[in-house]
Amino acid sequence: MESYNFWQDLFDTYQSLSDWMKTLWLIVPPAFALGALWLSLDYRLKSRSAAPTGDGMLAYTVFADETGIWRIHAHGGAEKVTDERPEATVLPLPGAHPHTLPKPPASDV
How far apart are the first and last CA of the chain? Predict the structure, then answer.
């Protein structure tokens, strides 16, 4: 087994292939490498263009507390929020005015 040479075996196998298989061996690896390079560069380009610019101002922060109730914190300059969830409330951040969500009218149906 000590006389076995991997490269000699690989090139011997390549030499014994048909011309079509030799062509595929020469085309497929570079095509795969170019495709992977194109996908990675395209992903980087699109992720940079989709990144937020940071030009705006944060108006609300929404989170669910430990009881499962949604809480909305209004940041400076945020207008009154309307929402269809009656359990959601708006809590002020320090220095902000409190806002509350309007309760939906009771239905007689």
Answer: 87
Summarised one tens digit per residue, pLDDT across range 3-35 is 899 999 999 999 999 999 999 999 999 999 999
User: How far is 109 from 104, CA to CA, in rounded Å?
Assistant: 14
The gap from C-alpha 48 to its chain's centroid, in whole angstroms, comes to 12
Higher-scoring residue by pLDDT: 102, 73: 73
Q: Are 32 and 25 spatial neighbours (Cβ–Cβ below 8 Å)?
A: no
Q: Provide CB contacts within 8 A for 89, sequence distance 6+.
A: 69, 70, 71, 72, 100, 101
Q: Are 74 and 92 in contact (CB under 8 A)?
A: yes
Strand partners, 62: 72
